[in-house]
Design brief:
- There is one protein chain.
- This protein is α+β, with helices and mostly antiparallel strands.
- The protein has one domain (2-58).
- The protein is built from 1 helix and 5 strands.
- A 3-stranded antiparallel sheet has the order 2-1-5, covered by helices on one side. It has a two-stranded antiparallel sheet with strand order 3-4.
- The protein is globular.
- The chain starts with a strand and ends in a 12-residue tail after the last strand.
């Protein structure tokens, strides 16, 4: 699943693929924001970890769990 995170005062966004479900990612972000945590910790398919400061979080876009189609549609 693709995750895109916008960061305040930054022209680029953080984008990566994760093997977690949308509900798990959404819950971990919501819990961190509700608890007033300084950082949100997420990891991608390759084992890299990302620490994003909650104070500079602009948006989080969580992609669908549906696989992409390949080819042409008739």
């Amino acid at each position: 699943m693709e995750i895109r995170i916008g960061i305040l005062n930054s022209p680029r966004e953080l984008s990566f693929e994760s093997s977690e479900t949308a509900t798990v990612i959404e819950k971990s972000i919501a819990d961190a924001l509700a608890a007033g945590a300084a950082f949100i910790s997420l990891s991608d398919n390759k084992g890299k970890s990302y620490l994003v400061p909650t104070a500079s979080l602009a948006y989080v876009e969580i992609g669908s769990e549906e696989a992409r189609r390949v080819g042409f549609l008739a």
